[in-house]
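Throughout this review, each integer encodes one residue's backbone shape. One record appears below.

===
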Amino acid sequence: MTSAQKTWFITGASRGFGREWTIAALERGDRVAATARDISTLDDVVAKYGDAVLALQLDVTDREADFAAVRRAHDHFGRLDVVVNNAGYGHFGFIEELTEQEFRDQMETNVFGAMWVTQAALPFLREQGSGHILQVSSIGGISAFPMVGAYHASKWALEGFSQALAQEVAGFGIHVTLIEPGGFATDWGGSSAKRSAELPAYAELHAQTAEARKRRIGTPGDPAATPAAVLAIVDAEEPPLRAFLGSAPLAIAKADYESRLATWEQWQHNAELAQG
């Protein structure tokens, strides 16, 4: 293995960002343990790249399976350099429409799945004194919009534990980066998405929200255009804690945080009353 070669562990590698980043890493000579719930979706990748890729069947909501998959990848390749928690989906539904199971399922995949893979990888990264964990979040991890409240809850949770994690593991030579894409033409809002049964009371708001989402996203980005940006982050000597993908997130974040700061400033007198 050359000094430049890296070994990746990527969840949700069957399509979207996961597939694009898997192929990009392999194309430049890296090695990848690529996971998917249905590994037949990776047959063409295995056929093309051979021993450089290890396809692993994995449902990230299974904690025991997460630990086993990470261990198998490490044993197979001898090390892990980049761990990408990409597996996840979007759930569409207003807060009142969500069932308990729908909300729990969203958290199980998007939060607990990433947590288990992260915990499974950390002992190996600590032992070798290096590593980089990429948590695939979203602009929805720092801002929020109607109809995807469960998704936002999951990504805000991912952001919170990952920011804490970055401080906990820095001394071991481990980096953590939250990747925060805007709207991309992945299957996030398509067949992989889940939707709650709509309540009649929200019929008009559903239509308004759908139109607002179309205007906000505009022309979705191409996932195939993202690998260069991700590889630049992975190869950086001091990678960022947070990094947007796409041109739209920065303006959304600025507007949101300017509004928050203004409100906090406006109500600071009230906060000081509470201090006594």
Remarks:
- Residues 100-128 form the longest helix (29 residues).
- The longest strand covers residues 174-181.
- The radius of gyration is 20 Å.
